[in-house]
Amino acid sequence: RYRHTHFLTSANALHQLPPEAGREVAFAGRSNAGKSSALNTLTAQRALARTSKTPGRTQLINLFEVEPGVRLVDLPGYGYAKVPTAVRLHWQQVLSRYLETRQVLVGLFLLMDIRHPFNPLDRQMLEWAGHRGLATHVLLTKSDKLKRGAAMAALQSVQRTLASELPHASVQLFSSHDRTGVDEAHARLDVWFGY
Ligand code: GTP
Ligand code: MG
């Protein structure tokens, strides 16, 4: 279903986004968390979204169309120290307003590197999503970097934290390298998009 996804447009500010029609699911997370890679993995395309070893690669809101009215949104990564303050503040404001006001946003994938969960900015994103009751699903990315037992322990630890602090959110393991969690993430997208 997601294989025919194609690039739609980029936005540098909220007024450049497509009109509020249809449904969107957004991918948010720290720079380098693996957002663009996850988008490519979930759409079975090698280079739909640009990935990079250099953090801060995605500096626009990039929108991809699964089919008319159904969009995946690659948000700029946050938390990259070398970004100038003015740019960082601009994007923090854009991200918060996008998450809090975008009507067609039906779900949020929050990506956290399994080795570094819950950066303060991750918590900020979860809070903004929580404010409006936005369905949020955490992808613990790069799970291939840990052995199976360690990955399961990390998953359970994040589950416990979410249960006590952010009960609206769910979580799963994900890896673009070995495809862990692809079916589970697709199932979540299907629910949000009403397939
Ligand atoms: P920004 O656009 O800078 O915010 O980064 P991003 O979150 O889009 O990250 P991106 O997908 O570009 O990936 C960053 C780096 O992590 C790249 O070097 C990827 O190859 C690597 N990476 C992404 N996913 C995985 C994964 O599942 N496993 C491993 N081992 N590496 C990954
Ligand atoms: Mg990216």
From TrEMBL:
Pfam families: MMR_HSR1 (PF01926). The keyword Metal-binding applies. Its cofactor is Mg(2+). One of its GO terms (cellular component) is cytosol. Keywords: Cell cycle, Cell division, GTP-binding, Magnesium, Metal-binding, Nucleotide-binding, Septation. One of its GO terms (molecular function) is GTP binding. Belongs to the TRAFAC class TrmE-Era-EngA-EngB-Septin-like GTPase superfamily. EngB GTPase family. HAMAP family: GTPase_EngB. Necessary for normal cell division and for the maintenance of normal septation. PANTHER family: ENGB-TYPE G DOMAIN-CONTAINING PROTEIN, MSS1/TRME-RELATED GTP-BINDING PROTEIN. This is Probable GTP-binding protein EngB. It comes from Plasticicumulans lactativorans. The lineage of its organism: Bacteria, Pseudomonadati, Pseudomonadota, Gammaproteobacteria, Candidatus Competibacteraceae. The gene is engB.
